[in-house]
Write a structure and sequence with these properties.
This protein is α/β, with parallel strands linked by helices. The protein has two domains: 187 residues, Bordetella uptake gene, domain 1 (D-Maltodextrin-Binding Protein, domain 2, 3-Layer(aba) Sandwich), CATH 3.40.190.150; 116 residues, Periplasmic binding protein-like II (D-Maltodextrin-Binding Protein, domain 2), CATH 3.40.190.10.
């Protein structure tokens, strides 16, 4: 994903007449006129919640209305997404969600009550969550070339942990496997904490994990970082190369967190929200606090974010089909 300029001009001309939802030009220009509900389909305290609250607080200050966080956790984000899909498309219900949103479209097959692409529109990206290939210190490798060579020398003998079937760590490794031809064994756990605990205990020898969940263990040399799944280096792990720069050209799997609205929300409202989000992501205090969480601010235009959504929907679909992952 290519980063874009931080400021996005609001297209005021798009607010000319009555929209399909009956919102007038005057209403769009004065939006928001009342508090905005922001559904976060994850528990409080996680990455989605942290970055969502941080940026929505900034929007509350800049737009003069409360952006009220509503944590609706459950079913890997499906419960909260269902609420937003059925909400009026008037700009007063938003959602902060991650790449899991596009993955769920394939993991749950035909069981979702909403269409991930048709029932939502992307408003803007908030941050990326760089994933790092990490190994237990007992594994005799210090870079990606050595990891691939060892995996090929010991097909099926290296175990890797993930936070569950179809999770970002699972699919990040699946992409690496598909691009290198290595054979390693997947061991899914129920969540990121047990995934990392298994790696720490030596139950598994390798894992992809978000930088924020393993940075302390890496700094204490209880785990070893090998390479980043993103296309750009991480400020939190200076000196750690990307997978693409380590010899697997074209590797790019960088989970993100973004803001969504129900499909049909007037474009002038979407544009205004996008502009304010990008301005919030320029705030040095916000940038510093995000970086403390190993989250990289990543402003985009509305159209660019929706292109990312479509591309990742296709990418995750192919990987999930390849792995056979399903959630019943």
């Amino acid at each position: 994903m290519k980063q874009t300029p931080l400021r996005v001009v609001v297209a005021v001309a798009l607010a000319g007449s009555l929209t399909a939802s009956g919102i007038t030009r005057a209403q769009t220009q004065t939006y928001p006129l009342k508090p905005v509900r922001v559904v976060i389909p994850w528990p409080a305290g996680g990455s989605n919640d942290i970055v969502g609250r941080m940026v929505m607080n900034e929007l509350g200050r800049s737009l003069g209305q409360q952006f009220v966080i509503d944590n609706r956790a459950g079913a890997s984000g499906v419960i909260g997404a269902d609420i937003v899909a059925k909400a009026p498309p008037d700009g007063y219900t938003l959602m902060v969600h991650s790449t899991t949103h596009v993955g769920n479209a394939h993991l749950y097959a035909n069981k979702l009550s909403y269409d991930t692409l048709k029932d939502f529109t992307g408003v803007g990206m908030l941050s990326t969550q760089p994933g790092v290939l990490t190994v237990h210190p007992s594994l005799p490798v210090r870079n990606l070339k050595e990891f691939i060579a060892l995996a090929k020398a010991r097909p099926g003998q290296i175990n890797y942990s993930s936070s569950g079937n179809g999770s970002a760590p699972h699919l990040q490794m699946a992409l690496l496997i598909s691009m290198t031809g290595i054979e390693i064994t997947h061991v899914p756990y129920k969540g990121g904490a047990p995934q990392v605990a298994a790696l720490m205990a030596g139950e598994t020898q390798a894992s992809f994990a978000t930088v924020g969940t393993v940075i302390n263990q890496i700094r204490d040399k209880r785990l070893r970082s090998i390479a980043l799944g993103s296309t750009a280096p991480s400020k939190t792990l200076p000196g750690v190369p990307t997978i693409a720069a380590s010899g697997v050209a074209g590797y790019d799997m960088n989970p993100w967190i973004g803001v969504f609205a129900p499909a049909g929300t007037p474009r002038p409202i979407i544009d205004r929200l996008n502009s304010e989000i990008n301005l919030a992501l320029m705030n040095p205090e916000v940038v510093a606090r995000l970086e403390q969480q190993a989250l990289d601010p990543y402003p985009t235009s509305v159209d660019e974010f929706n292109k990312v959504l479509l591309a990742d929907h296709q990418k995750y679909g192919k990987l999930i089909k390849m792995t056979g992952a399903r959630i019943e």
